[in-house]
Amino acid sequence: MVNEVQGIGIPTSHTSVQTTPTKEISRTNTINTVDESKTTIDPDQYKPKLELLSERLNEEMKRIGTDINFSYNDTIKGLVVSVKDANGDKVIREIPSKEAVELMQRMRDVIGIIFDKRG
């Protein structure tokens, strides 16, 4: 049977729908164990590579005449980018910011107090 939706003029169809029972599918959960000693990354092993990378990037930045400086930060164990003004006197922006670096250090200190790394 076809009817119109009231006032709009859109034909609608009313048909009976038959449903058939469905089978319940059982799911099995598989737990994969991962050796965490193989998946953790030791940031100290990348320090020489990151320092070399920062030196190369700084050479390229000098070559193209920009005041962007890359350096390795022991606190965050990663690269820091400093953008200076045209005179090279004032730092316009640091990525991550000094506040973010300090926050990361404080969070690591708190985590070190809460969790024993030996466990």
Automatic annotation (TrEMBL):
Annotated region described as Disordered, given as residue ranges: 1-26
Keywords assigned by UniProt, alphabetized: Cell projection, Cilium, Flagellum
Record has Lyase as a keyword: no
A Pfam family: FlaG
Polar residues: bias regions: 12-26
Superkingdom, taxonomy of origin: Bacteria
Gene3D superfamilies xref list: FlaG-like (3.30.160.170)
Protein name: Polar flagellin (FlaG)
UniProt organism field: Helicobacter pylori (strain ATCC 700392 / 26695)
